[in-house]
Design a protein that fits this description.
The protein is an alpha+beta fold. It is about 25% helix and about 50% strand. It has 3 helices and 7 strands. The chain has helices at about 1-20, 25-30, 50-60; strands spanning about 30-40, 40-45, 60-70, 75, 85-95, 105-120, 120-135. The longest helix has 20 residues, at about 1-20. The chain is globular, with a radius of gyration of 15 Å.
């Protein structure tokens, strides 16, 4: 599973890089069919188009000053290597602009678990669950 672990770790690192580069297309390109997201007491099934639009808005109004792993991701696999999970904790800080153009700083610790499915030799995000904590809550 060492090679598979490197593939998942590479995809995680490319996800962080996509935030820095403001590459909104990266995210829907890596969603598997049937993708789901669990956050804020909701289970959502966004389409690729909805995800693309959401990331476009988010990245257009956000400037990152920090986006990094706080610990080495925890990666595991199903016995046949067709499913994987990656549990991460990252520090994310920067500024976000609201609809009036006012910028506000943010300093967050995010934790999430992503489920991956390998289809046709390619890993896709099957689902994720995430939460965050503001710096003033720590």
């Amino acid at each position: 599973f060492d090679a598979l672990r490197r593939e998942i770790l590479d995809l995680h690192r490319r996800t962080i890089e996509a935030h820095w580069k403001k590459d909104a297309r990266f995210f829907p390109e890596h969603m598997a069919d049937g993708y789901f997201a669990v956050q804020n007491g909701e289970v959502r099934h966004p389409s690729r188009e909805e995800a693309a639009a959401s990331f476009e808005r988010y990245l257009a109004t956000t400037t990152f000053t920090e986006y990094r792993d706080l610990r080495e991701p925890l990666i595991g696999f199903s016995s046949d290597g067709s499913f994987a999970w990656c549990v991460v904790q990252v520090k994310v800080a920067g500024r976000e602009r609201d609809s009036s153009g006012t910028e506000s700083p943010f300093d967050l610790t995010w934790a999430w678990m992503t489920l991956y499915e390998k289809r046709d030799g390619r890993w896709g995000w099957l689902g994720e669950s995430s939460s965050y904590q503001r710096a003033d809550q720590r």
